[in-house]
Amino acid sequence: MDPNLEKRTLKKIYSLLGGTDKRWTFSKIMFLLIFILSLGVSIYSCIVMWVFQDLSMLEWLIPAVFAECAVVSGFYSYKSKTENQLKIQTQQMLIRHFLSE
Question: Is residue 12 part of a domain?
C-alpha cells in the first residue's frame, strides 16, 4: 500500500472528525461556575462562622451548595461519556469505510 495514500486517508479521517476542538462548551462553563460558586460560598461561610462564632450555617447552606455541585458534576460526566461513545463509534465507522476502499 502507498504510504502517501495512508497519510492522506488519515488526514481525511482527522478532518472529517473536526480536528481538535478546544472551545468552551456550555456544560464546561456551567461546571466551572458552579465549582467557583461552591468554593466562594464555602470560604464565605467559614469567615462568617469564625466572626459570629455560630456553626448553624453548616446545617443547610454547605450541604445544599455541595449537592448542587455534585449534580452538575454528575451531569457533566454522563454527558462527556455519551459524547465520547458517539465519537468512538463514528471513528470506527469512518476507519472501516476508508479501509474497505
Answer: no
CB 41 within 8 A of CB 68: no
Mean pLDDT of the chain: 80
Question: Phi/psi class of residue 38: alpha, beta or left (left: φ > 0; alpha: ψ in -120 to 50)?
Answer: alpha
Cα atoms found within 13 Å of the Cα of residue 100, Cβ hemisphere only? 6
The CB density around residue 52, as the number of other CB atoms within 10 Å, is: 10
Reported pTM:
0.59
Q: How confident is the model at residue 19 (pLDDT cuts 50, 70, 90)?
A: low
> Cα–Cα distance between 72 and 36 in angstroms, integer?
12
Is 55 in contact with 49 (CB distance < 8 Å)?
Answer: yes
Does residue 65 lie within any of the structural domains? yes
The number of domains in the chain is 1
pLDDT at residue 9 in the model: 65
